[in-house]
Amino acid sequence: MILTVTLNPALDLTYAVDALVPHATHRVTAVTERPGGKGLNVAAVLHALGEPVLATGLLGGTTGGRVQDLLAADDIPTSFRRIAAETRRTVAVADGVDATGFWEPGPAVTAGEWRDFVAHFRGLLSGASVAVLSGSLPPGVPSEGYATLIALAADARVPAVLDTSGDPLRLGLAARPDVVKPNAAELAALHGDAGLDERAGADRLLELGARAVVLSRGERGLLAVTPGGSWEAVPPATVAGNPTGAGDACVAALARGLAARTPWDLLLADAAALSAAAVAAPAAGAFDAGAYRRWSNAEETPC
């Protein structure tokens, strides 16, 4: 079972309007809602692939209950811990041309609630083959929160995949995650060098503690750097669509590959194919199954 952790989930709402006009009243023509958060997207992709998965994290209030209900409706197994504060919402207003987003702040997590989750996570590791730690941290969770969870996973001999940014990424590296998956912007921000060579930046992450780095580079594909070698995988096709969930689909493929001990060349090619298929899908947490089948032999090269 692959365990996904989402500490700052959201209820994602999308309002469809004919046109977005500042300072005007709008009639909404359609409303959609879905569970949001990077770890939940990873769980949804793994579930669609038929992989055993368990989603955990923190949920609170009526909004958290709605997120739980939507996950149950999709038959995604969960084991969340409840908190007192209300789970956040994200609102996207789409006018058929583009979308404007409004992101609420995350809920405040108390020290006791965080300790409770850490103990809960430790218990879930006994049934896990891989732990995926994704997304931002809500207020109250210490910046070294992911480092704490990675250390617990290591003690349980469970590989950990880390997909975050900023201080949680920097501090998480010290706990030696098995894979980290930054994008180019996150890598540059971490090192404070917008002109940093990507390969050099990935090498620095290895020096800081990562056992392997997979850098997502948009249309240029993926770069994997490990102590034993490096590989590139290019997208199998030029895909127009929604790139929002491509990184989460990549993480899902990496976690599945780690669980199966797939060689890096095949693992990276699969991650590139699944990421491209996610771009072809309308929403994060989904992928175009037909496209994925066609593209599952994406080109990969050692470098």
How would you characterize the overall build of this protein?
- By secondary structure, the chain is α/β, with parallel strands linked by helices.
- The chain has one domain: Ribokinase (UDP-N-acetylmuramoyl-L-alanine:D-glutamate ligase), CATH 3.40.1190.20.
- 38% of the residues lie in helices and 23% in strands.
- The protein has ten helices and 14 strands.
- Strands 5-4-1-8-9-10 form a six-stranded parallel β-sheet, sandwiched between helices. A four-stranded mixed β-sheet has the order 3-2-6-7. A four-stranded antiparallel β-sheet has the order 11-12-13-14, sandwiched between helices.
- Helix 1 crosses helix 8, helix 4 runs parallel beside helix 5 and helix 8 packs antiparallel against helix 9.
- The chain is globular and about 55 Å long.
pLDDT averaged over residues:
90
How is the main sheet built? 6 strands, parallel
CA(first)-CA(last) distance? 32 Å
Per CATH, the architecture is 3-Layer(aba) Sandwich
Q: Give Rg in angstroms.
A: 19 Å
Shape: globular
CATH homology-level superfamily: Ribokinase
Q: H/E element string? A: EEEHEHEEEHEHEHEHHEEEHHHE
Widest sheet: strand order?
5-4-1-8-9-10
Number of helical segments with 4 or more residues: 10
